[in-house]
Design brief:
3 domains, Alpha-Beta Plaits, Structural Genomics Hypothetical 15.5 Kd Protein In mrcA-pckA Intergenic Region, Chain A, 7 helices, binds uracil, 9-stranded mixed β-sheet, elongated, 237 residues, 13 strands, alpha+beta
């Protein structure tokens, strides 16, 4: 990020309109590296600069990359209609910065959900051209059989898809659970593939995206964390 004055930095980081940010500073509600600052002051080096605004700690970043362990009964859409939106689980500043889910999980699907305000990153992650594998654990209504696994691997035809949809890999986990890996993210894809193969999905968890695994994040349901450089690298195709 290029150097900027404190009022511009607050605006840039999503603390409110230009006027709101100026007032925050003038009223002594902002600390920079621990010190109260009441002037717009000199140009600051923003990367990883630590601020406190009304007691809220904030580390300045050009872009936000976050992972949420999504609970059930939250919607990924920007205008949620039947359940609260996933952004309600994150600090308000994230919405101010236009942070969005990368792809969507159904309201009843749980597990790994990336969110970011970096348009290039969102596009790259969501695009099927980049083949970032998504790993799901599905609980099935009917038993998991070798025939079901074989069908998901060879491809199932869905009514509104021109080509059969194929799992990159698929394996049984127990009598009523399987792991399925997909490289596309079509609407209700796992549920529709299971239905087309004669079973039914009772519950669905996304356990990994690329090499980023939920179990390695130590993130309880409903909690989120920033992704560090190492974790971001695990998302490469
Ligand atoms: N496939 C589904 O059916 N639902 C999801 O939420 C994700 C993948």
């Amino acid at each position: 990020m290029k150097k900027m004055m404190l009022n511009k930095l607050l605006l840039n980081q999503g603390f409110g309109t230009r006027r709101v940010c100026e007032q925050l500073i003038r009223k002594g509600r902002v600390r920079v590296a621990g010190e109260v600052v009441t002037e717009f002051g000199d140009l600051l080096e923003p990367d990883l600069l630590e601020l406190e605004v009304d007691g809220q700690h904030w580390v300045c970043r050009e872009f936000i990359y976050v992972v949420l362990n999504k609970p059930a009964n939250y919607e990924c859409s920007r205008k949620p209609s039947h359940h609260p939106g996933v952004l309600s689980l994150l600090p308000r500043i994230f919405s101010e910065r236009n942070t969005q889910p990368v792809g969507r999980l159904d309201h009843d699907t749980t597990g790994l959900l990336l969110l970011s305000d970096d348009g290039t990153f969102i596009h790259r992650q969501a695009s099927p051209k980049h083949h970032v594998p998504k790993v799901y654990e599905a609980t099935t209504h009917e038993p998991v059989t070798p025939e079901l696994i074989a069908l998901l691997l060879s491809g199932v035809k869905l009514v509104d898809e021109a080509e059969p949809l194929v799992a990159m890999s698929c394996r049984p986990l127990d009598t009523h659970r399987l792991e399925i890996v997909l490289e596309q993210g079509k609407y209700h894809q796992v549920k529709r593939m299971l239905a087309a193969a004669g079973n039914h999905c009772d519950a669905l968890v996304r356990t990994a995206i690329g090499k980023l695994r939920l179990e390695e994040l130590d993130l309880p349901q409903g909690k989120w964390c920033f992704l560090n450089e190492e974790q971001l690298a695990l998302l490469a195709p």
